[in-house]
Amino acid sequence: MKNSIKHEYDRDMESYKSMLGRVHAATAEGQKAAIERRMKAFDRMWKTMLSVRDSTGSYTFHFDIRTEAEWLDLPSNHNFRNLVGALDDNMMLRLMGDRTIEEERPYVGEVVWALFFAYRSFNMRLVHLARQSLSTPGSINWSADAATRGLLAATLSAEEIAEFDRLGISKVDFVRRTIEGKVLSAWHRLISGAEFGEEALRHAHALLKVVSRPA
């Protein structure tokens, strides 16, 4: 009787272990597939960020090498007027990069997506104001623009805003590098499996609301 029970027990244990092995293998494969899909999504999003930075760089470069006081002369600068004056709506759309990038939103998460969206909006806002300055010269002072300030306030910390305001030049580069750092930090947290708290998610949703608000 004891031997019979032991045999049944051993058989059941082997069956259970085999089942656990299959479950663990399936779970590991599922996690691997999920991580690979997230990596591909982030890779595409990061390349879009770099594309936006590169495509808008020829316009925003003029802000980074000048002080705020010197920006005011840009609308009367012949080379600047020729550069910005050539922009049309189709060109503005191309500057935005991958227009179907929102397909990756479910895979990069709301925090990363909000930061990406803010990054693209910041760059496009500057180009828009540069274009608008040809008819409304005061628009060139983008750091005083209410919509831009609102975007920065929703994206940067109080300390980062203070540092931004202290800079004489390279303000655009500072904002870009700061948001890029936040994107990378958030992404590393996401792929490490660490969860974002409710506060981080609320901030992401608030940021998207600010960025999506009409100027």
Count of discrete structural domains = 1
Element order: H for helix, E for strand:
HHHHHHHHHH
Separate helix tally:
10
Q: Classify the helix fraction into a percent range.
A: over 70%
- What structural category arises from helix and sheet content? mainly alpha
Give the mean pLDDT: 84
Shape: elongated
> How far apart, in Å, are the first and last alpha carbons?
83 Å
- How much is the radius of gyration in Å? 25 Å
> Uncertain spans, ≥5 residues at pLDDT below 50?
none
Proportion of residues in β-strands: under 5%
Largest sheet: none
The tally of beta strands, per DSSP, is 0
Written description of the protein model:
Helix 1 (2-64) runs antiparallel to helix 9 (171-191), helix 6 packs antiparallel against helix 9 and helix 6 (110-132) packs parallel to helix 10 (198-212). This protein has helices at 2-64, 68-71, 78-85, 89-95, 105-108, 110-132, 146-155, 158-166, 171-191, 198-212. The protein has 10 helices and no strands. The model has no long low-confidence stretch (mean pLDDT 84). Helices cover 76% and strands 0% of the residues. The chain has one domain (35-212).
